[in-house]
């Protein structure tokens, strides 16, 4: 039986494993994929971090300067590989955990090969971007076109010359829409249900991440109008192009929906230029068309659903009281959710995912008994 087991060899899992090791606590890391950073490896080719390199490194090893200010996907994967090697973390790849059950003084994990793995302490760091979610739109089973989740998208080449509808104006959806427009798609539409909060990734060298860190502690009644004013100052009015201004404040959406703003890396330019056409929310499918909430329809060859992810934790644990209605642990980021059970990497902040993972890794490592 292991003393401590960490689930997930992404940034949060590696960070907490390194912090545990620094405190003299041995652990093993179980990873379902063929290597560390599995989720990052599977993201689209043009992806860069939306947080600056100097505020995205994990404890004990900064991201190399030569990776630039906005780190590419492949460079982040290389960094996480180097991080695991630097700290000598025991990562056991190709190990899928199918269920977790509590025991008297241990946690029992059933693995995909039918074997069992027991651990006195279990740290779950599988992330909130774990399981792709596609809405069950009425009629989609009859549609004759192609429907994929954004998790399956790599680059625009397979969609050259095709009419593509991207559903969801989050960071992934907007960046994929821009990638398609630049990559030769015949047409690109972006379906929007709730108008996004759009910010520039940086203004005169000042990154949006620092605004989040400096202003994020302000109460909603101050932060929301301040963010709206800043958006009107730095962004063109997109209402003539089909994107309304958000009705709900940014920090309110962060609190109630775990929402982060859309960082503009080309989508505003492409909407204004007509290369990406905003349309209404998807309502349903017919055999050849997609019906929208405003009563219009489009006839794409391909629909790319940038409709988010679930944690997948409800399928792993049989105790629903651990999680909220979206599958996020009710207790995470430091304190034990149950004796010997910890979750980290499930918080969403304006300061950045990797920075938050670094903070939480220290908290959890201090809370885990030696």
UniProtKB/TrEMBL annotation:
GO molecular function per UniProt: flavin adenine dinucleotide binding; N,N-dimethylaniline monooxygenase activity; NADP binding
Flavoprotein keyword on record: yes
UniProt cross-references to InterPro entries, sorted A to Z: Auxin_biosynth/cation_transpt, FAD/NAD-bd_sf, Flavin_mOase, Flavin_mOase-like
A Pfam family that the UniProt record links to this protein: FMO-like
SUPFAM superfamilies: FAD/NAD(P)-binding domain
UniProt keyword terms in alphabetical order: FAD, Flavoprotein, Oxidoreductase
Family to which the UniProt record says this protein belongs: Belongs to the FAD-binding monooxygenase family.
Protein name per UniProt: Thioredoxin reductase
Source species of the chain: Actinoplanes digitatis
Lineage, opening ranks: Bacteria, Bacillati, Actinomycetota, Actinomycetes, Micromonosporales
